Amino acid sequence: KLEELIVEFRSAIGEVDKKASLFDLKAEYLGKKGKLNLILKSLKDAAPEDRKELGIRSNNYKIEIQDSIDKKLAQLEIDEINEKLEKNWQDITLRDSVRDLGMNSAGYHPVTIIQREIEDIFLSMGFDILDGPHIEDEFHNFEALNIPATHPARDMQDTFWFKDMEHLLRTHTSTIQVRGMEAHKPPFKFVGPGKVFRSEALDASHEAVFHQLEGMMVGENISVSNLIFFMKTLLSEIFKKDVNVRLRPGFFPFVEPGFELDIECLICGGKGCSVCKQTGWVELLPCGMTHPNVLKAGGVDTDKYNGFAFGLGLDRLVMMRYGIDDIRHLHSGNLAFASQFKAY
Ligand code: FA5
């Protein structure tokens, strides 16, 4: 009987191609009322001299059955994964715009669209495009930018610190200035777009994760007029119409002199709304002449070179360009919202 049982089991397990039938088979052979147990129960009727040997054999069969079931289960799970991989296969090298998102026309996120437009504008003026890490150290986010630990300016940007208190999520793309100076010999000019992170109270114009685009130019005899020229070119290319801007003094430890370039709010036409906090103006583009301490920290010879830098608020620029009245739409993940923007 034992021999028959194991032959029958071996052929049955060969037929199994689903987890559910495997579990049924396990119950049929190894369950409390299963075939093997029935045989074990009947051992007591066997001749005493055979009992020991029968006991050993049935135990070996039990181990074989359990083993085969485990192996089969592992195999079925691998098959399942392979089947899923086969079914859900995607060519990730395809451009996003042709991937089927189940929408009428797939497109880029408006921040990406504007970011690429700006990159093209600066590329055409001979700038490089640089990148930097989201997780930074104190040196690149603060110290090299002339903001020592005791400086009150550290409180201007509410920082997400890591537990080690040495690393942080970068609070601004000015970190890219430092990394750019470390990697390049002057003269150079580059822009560096990217995500930045601040522990902020959220409202129509403030997000905790948002985007900036840093710019820096270092060379001989760079002046405020160079800075203003590039800012004007940027804005006229992006808006393709005259927009009202105002330049006022601004304080940032890494520039001297520093300016705040505000744009007249295009949501309310300067009348006052929740985006501009009823002021009619939106802070968009702080900038200034790079502080010598920053150039020195970046290894630039300040006897020979100077420079300017700016830090554009990309999300706010996108809001002004498209008339978006709340920054939170941008990061809502709402496809109906995102699909309104034309592909780049
Ligand atoms: C800075 O981050 C400086 N690093 C900019 C800079 C660079 C100045 C180079 C001088 C030279 P500020 O904290 O003001 O500055 O942020 C820059 C821009 O980012 C703001 O003008 C605004 O457009 C945008 N911004 C700031 N906070 C938020 C926020 N919480 N949500 C969305 N946009 C924001």
TrEMBL record:
Binds 2 magnesium ions per tetramer. GO terms for cellular component: cytoplasm. This is Phenylalanine--tRNA ligase alpha subunit. PANTHER family: PHENYLALANINE--TRNA LIGASE, MITOCHONDRIAL, PHENYLALANYL-TRNA SYNTHETASE. InterPro entries: aa-tRNA-synth_II, aa-tRNA-synth_II/BPL/LPL, Phe-tRNA-synth_IIc_asu, Phe-tRNA_ligase_II_N, Phe_tRNA_ligase_alpha1_bac, Phenylalanyl-tRNA_Synthase, tRNA-bd_arm. Belongs to the class-II aminoacyl-tRNA synthetase family. Phe-tRNA synthetase alpha subunit type 1 subfamily. Tetramer of two alpha and two beta subunits. Mg(2+) binds at residue 256. Its EC number is 6.1.1.20. GO terms for molecular function: ATP binding; magnesium ion binding; phenylalanine-tRNA ligase activity; tRNA binding. GO terms for biological process: phenylalanyl-tRNA aminoacylation. It is found in: Cytoplasm. Residues 106-320 form the Aminoacyl-transfer RNA synthetases class-II family profile domain. Pfam families: Phe_tRNA-synt_N (PF02912), tRNA-synt_2d (PF01409). It catalyses: tRNA(Phe) + L-phenylalanine + ATP = L-phenylalanyl-tRNA(Phe) + AMP + diphosphate + H(+). Keywords: Aminoacyl-tRNA synthetase, ATP-binding, Cytoplasm, Ligase, Magnesium, Metal-binding, Nucleotide-binding, Protein biosynthesis. CDD domains: PheRS_alpha_core. It is an enzyme of class 6 (ligase). PROSITE patterns: AA_TRNA_LIGASE_II (PS50862). The lineage of its organism: Bacteria, Pseudomonadati, Spirochaetota, Spirochaetia, Spirochaetales. Its cofactor is Mg(2+).
